[in-house]
Every structure is written in C-alpha cells, then in structure tokens.
Amino acid sequence: MDLPTVIDKYYTQHKSQSLDDSSNLDKQYSPSQWTTRLTPETIVGNHVETMVSATKNARSNINCETGVKYSDLGPNCLLDIYKPAEVTKGTPVFVFIHGGYWQECSRDVSGHAAESVTKMGAIYVGIGYDLCPSVSMAEIVSQVQAAFQFIRHRFPYTVGIHIMGHSAGAHLATMILAQNSHDFPTLLPVTIYAVSGVFDLRPLIETSVNNALKMTTEDAEEMSPMDPKNFKKIYANSRQSTRFIICIAENDSPAFHDQSVRFYEMLSATGVQCDFIEFENTDHFNIVEKSTDPNYLMNDVIKNQLSSLSTK
After folding, report:
1. Rounded-to-integer distance, Cα 216 and Cα 296, Å
2. For residue 302, what pLDDT band results from cuts at 50, 70 and 90?
3. Which of 30, 110, 284, 291 is catalytic?
4. Where are the transmembrane segments (predicted)?
5. Which of 167, 196, 238, 253 is catalytic?
6. What's the distance, CA 72 to chain centroid?
7. Tens-digit pLDDT profile for residues 18-35
8. Which of 95, 93, 80, 229 has the alpha carbon at shortest distance from 158?
C-alpha cells in the first residue's frame, strides 16, 4: 500500500469522525474513568505518588546525575542519567518520557524503571520538559527533540537508543522521529515504546484536556504523528533501523485502544518494523507502574529488544 493511500485510510478519512459522540469524548479521553483498581478521584494521585516514590528510590540507590541541562529552550529542559554497574562506549541508552497530558508531572516521576533497566546493563535517562499552558505543544515537541539530540551526542557510540513514552509521553516519543532527515541519524538503531498514547490529537480539541493545551484544529493537526506532514518524516526516519513497539493497557478506554491500533496499522501498512502488545490486567496507570517488578512483561520486552540490538 503506498503512502498517500495509507494516510488517507488511517488519518484523512477519520478527520470528521469520533469514536463516540462529542459529549462522551471527555470520558473516552479521561483514563481515570476506566480503571477498576481505584476510584477516578484517587487513581491519578496514587499514580503520581507511586512514580515519585520509585524515582526517589532510584536516585538514592543508583549512580545518577540529576538535573542535567539538555537545552536552553526552557527552564525544565533537564534530564536525569542513571548508570548501570558497567558503562562502555557502546552501552545502550534507554529514555523515558513521562505523561500527564502535556500539562502535569515532571522528571520527578521519570525514574520509576531505572533500577530494572540499569540491571539489564543499559543507561537510563528520565526527561523533563516544560508544560502547557506556560508553553505550547509545539514548544514541548521541540524540547523533547532537543533532548534526543543531546542524548545522541552525549552517547555517540551507543549500540542503540530506546525511547519509552507513556500517555502524552508516547506522543512525544513518536514526534522525536518527526524531524528533518539531516537531524535524525538514519543508521542509529532506535526503538520507540509507545505506551497508551495519543497519535491523532484532533479529538482532544473537544475535550477539557484542551483547556490547558489551547490547541486549535490546525495546531492539533500540526502536532499529530499521524498527520501527513509528520507521518512522512516518521516513515522516512524509520525505514532502516527503527522499531515501534505499540503498547496498550487492557483497561484503557476504547478511544485509547483505537488510537494505538490505528497508528500500529498505519505503520505496519507502510512496512515500518512494528509490534503491538496489549498488557493484560493493567490500566492506563499501572501499565508503567509495574515496571518496578523485574518479572513484569514490559521488562521482558525491553530486555529482549536490548539483547537483539546488542548482538547485531
């Protein structure tokens, strides 16, 4: 299937469509409404507390550089670098980009999986960025793209860079590839783990999420990975050495499932290396919280991908 046909099928034809009527979009894009573990009123606070606690433990127990400045684009352009017991020039790098609908959380929730990943022998990096409404969505995307460039130059001999983004972070991780080809090293092995993400931002225009984002329809299109302009760059930068691993929680909403499935099918239809995994007995929040457990499936996925690139 050629690229224009793929874009038309998975993006353009959905331009005027919503999974549900607009009055239900707020619920569809409110992950707290779909969890079965806790109440909608307590699940977000519990998630932040869990992630902050795990990050504090990681900072205390792992050799870590905190608050490393990666760009002058904003005050929160800082990252934390957690190092495994042994570091060589080729050590793989694993990056985590937090969620929070581009308006909440910080790198203080980004170190939850540092212990698990550094034990696999990888350098772990937790990225911070500025938040809406203080900055625009476009500025956040530019910051995260700058973070990637910083990491690439900080670790130029790595055997591969692995980038995991959760929720809004999955969108940002994907948009790292929406750079001009001369800014993106096509031969560098890159794995994108897009966890419970939003890849078509247009439905958010009609939700309360947009109160802080303040996106117009044009903004949402310009910042959507599935938009033709961005998808063409993502496709071009993915053809040789990039793999997408699209992850979704069993108890994510139908809207989040639709977003992940549609983006996965769009990538697959163009021949981009891509896997799709639904994590049983998880929701939008504990799909990443569980990474503190070394026996969690997500850690097996990461370990297998690290190994596959290290042996090439």
Report:
1. 39
2. very high
3. 284
4. none
5. 167
6. 22
7. 544 555 889 999 999 999
8. 93
